[in-house]
């Protein structure tokens, strides 16, 4: 391959003469004989990258965040949201700095299919790379299943209630939706589907506005009779899983940064992205909690009593989840293609590989229809590790490594990291790590308890295809407000009965 000598500036695995970027395109294309893709095609600016970050994080969090406030209480909810946003923004900033440092130390890094595990390898070694890879893939796979189920249940409601078409079951909608989404997953990387993400961002804004308008219409009758739940330490800990899930996205951040025209501007993208997410979450969560209180259940959308606003918000969230699934599943697809040595160019290898991944997501979605408790567990366990612990460790070890250690493929010890790192930075990171680990352990414990008490529906393929036989966790309801949940804003008879 032309310029191969330039890719041997730094050794891999501590062995002189091996290319630094063994998980990026140099080794891939030396082994397959393919031509490396042009590095500067389909690059995005920092503003589009910020939109990617917002689109990656919001979606399910829009409907679940007010419920998290119900579990935590108003003041603790505000504190949790702001604190988690600041911590996650800081660790996202750290991820960006690590990637920039890697590019400075090897300007020929080229196309990298698995930047997040690559950071782990270059900062902490092969064992951390394998751990990061497994953790990230499990998390992204689980999030993909959640988004598939959520969007399918909403679309099924439209098919049966709006269009009065009752012959198609929820199971068939899940399968049909997976087939429709599949071609979009064939796009190589975020640089090729930025238009899809902009659409996802627009749908989210429309959904939030629809929900806010709906709450405003309901507030004159609902707020005077509102009741607020008594929060407990257990419920507050359980709410952490939702808060963490709503701000997760770090597994995808390096993939987005890698497709930027100027990756050094990623810090601006992260800052603007997290500010945008907070501005979407905070007013919605506070307003919904104040007006509805205990009458909220799985989703704030079903507390809205203006039907067309409820339908509009649901449809926008469904479209957003479909678009976000395309983002979330992409790093998983790229890493699998790396291990299978699939060409970067579009071809049968990419189509077959990504089709198999979608089939696996579909199979799990049909097997575990009630995925809500699993979502809480993922939010409290793998997300703190991937969004806080790993980025912080990568940053500390990367900054502590000397140029000579980097060239030789050696890694600083824990003692050396403590000695070489600015004490203020060290203390801040250790405090963040302590909070993340402590909150993750407590949240995982509560998530496991909730999972043990959950009543799961049988898989689709064992219960037939009738809509009545499938009971997922994202059910559509007409909810009334007030302390007794009996207030119908439009005085509709039997409106307060759940579907």
What would you say this structure looks like, in words?
The protein is an all-alpha fold and 499 residues long. It has a domain at 45-372: Up-down Bundle (Amino acid/polyamine transporter I). Helix content is 67%, strand content 0%. The protein is built from 19 helices and no strands. The chain has helices at residues 25-32, 46-57, 60-72, 74-105, 115-124, 126-162, 170-185, 194-222, 233-246, 253-258, 266-292, 307-340, 348-367, 372-380, 382-400, 403-408, 414-420, 423-453, 460-463. The termini are far apart. Mean pLDDT is 78; it is low at 1-23, 25-40 and 465-475.
- The average pLDDT score comes to 78
What's the main sheet like? Answer: none
Tell me the strand percentage band.
under 5%
Tell me the CATH superfamily of the domain at 45-372. Amino acid/polyamine transporter I
CATH class of the domain at 45-372: Mainly Alpha
Regions with pLDDT < 50 over 5+ consecutive residues?
A: 1-23, 25-40, 465-475
The structure class reads mainly alpha
* Helix run count: 19
What is the C-alpha radius of gyration, as a whole number of Å?
A: 23 Å
Considering DSSP H and I runs of 4 or more, what fraction of the residues is helical?
A: 55-70%
What's the count of strands?
0
Distance between the termini: 63 Å
CATH topology title of the domain at 45-372:
Amino acid/polyamine transporter I
For this structure, the quaternary state is single chain
Order of helices and strands: HHHHHHHHHHHHHHHHHHH
């Amino acid at each position: 391959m032309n310029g191969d000598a330039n890719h041997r500036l730094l050794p891999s695995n501590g062995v002189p003469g091996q290319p630094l970027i063994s998980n990026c395109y140099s080794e891939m294309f030396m082994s397959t004989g393919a031509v490396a893709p042009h590095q500067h095609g389909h690059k995005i600016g920092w503003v589009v990258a910020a939109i990617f970050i917002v689109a990656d994080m919001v979606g399910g969090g829009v409907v679940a965040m007010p419920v998290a406030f119900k579990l935590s209480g108003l003041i603790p909810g505000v504190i949790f949201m702001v604190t988690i946003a600041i911590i996650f923004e800081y660790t996202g900033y750290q991820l960006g700095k690590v990637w920039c440092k890697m590019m400075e130390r090897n300007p020929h890094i080229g196309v990298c299919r698995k930047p997040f595990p690559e950071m782990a390898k270059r900062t902490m070694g092969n064992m951390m790379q394998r751990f990061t890879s497994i953790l990230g893939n499990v998390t992204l796979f689980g999030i993909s299943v959640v988004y598939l189920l959520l969007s399918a249940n909403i679309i099924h409601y439209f098919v049966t209630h709006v269009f009065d078409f009752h012959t198609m079951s929820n199971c068939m909608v899940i399968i049909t939706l997976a087939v429709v989404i599949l071609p979009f997953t064939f796009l190589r990387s975020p640089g090729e589907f930025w238009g899809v993400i902009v659409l996802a961002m627009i749908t989210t804004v429309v959904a939030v506005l629809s929900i806010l308008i709906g709450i405003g219409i309901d507030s004159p009758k609902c707020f005077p009779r509102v009741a607020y739940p008594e929060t407990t330490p257990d419920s507050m800990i359980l709410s952490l899983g939702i808060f963490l899930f709503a701000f997760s996205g770090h597994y995808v951040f390096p993939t987005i940064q890698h497709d930027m025209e100027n990756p050094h501007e990623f810090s601006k993208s992260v800052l603007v992205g997290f500010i945008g997410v907070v501005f979407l979450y905070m007013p919605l969560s506070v307003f919904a909690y104040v007006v509805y209180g205990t009458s909220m259940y799985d989703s704030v959308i079903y507390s809205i009593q203006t039907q067309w606003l409820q339908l509009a918000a649901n449809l926008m969230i469904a479209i957003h989840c479909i678009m976000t699934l395309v983002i979330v599943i992409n790093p998983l697809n790229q890493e699998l293609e790396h291990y299978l040595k699939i060409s970067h160019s579009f071809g049968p290898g990419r189509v077959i590989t990504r089709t198999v991944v979608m089939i696996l997501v579909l199979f799990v979605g049909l097997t575990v229809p009630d995925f809500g408790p699993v979502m809480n567990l993922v939010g409290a366990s793998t997300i703190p590790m991937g969004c806080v612990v790993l980025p912080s460790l990568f940053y500390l070890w990367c900054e502590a490594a000397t140029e000579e250690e980097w060239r030789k493929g050696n890694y600083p010890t824990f003692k050396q990291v403590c000695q070489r790192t600015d004490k203020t930075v060290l203390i801040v990171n250790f405090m963040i790590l302590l909070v993340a680990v402590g909150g993750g352990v407590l949240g995982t414990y509560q998530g496991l308890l909730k999972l043990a008490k959950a009543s799961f529906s049988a898989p689709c393929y064992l219960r037939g295809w009738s809509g009545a036989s499938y009971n997922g966790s994202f059910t559509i309801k007409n909810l009334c407000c007030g302390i007794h949940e009996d207030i119908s804003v439009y005085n509709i008879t039997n409106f307060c009965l759940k579907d």
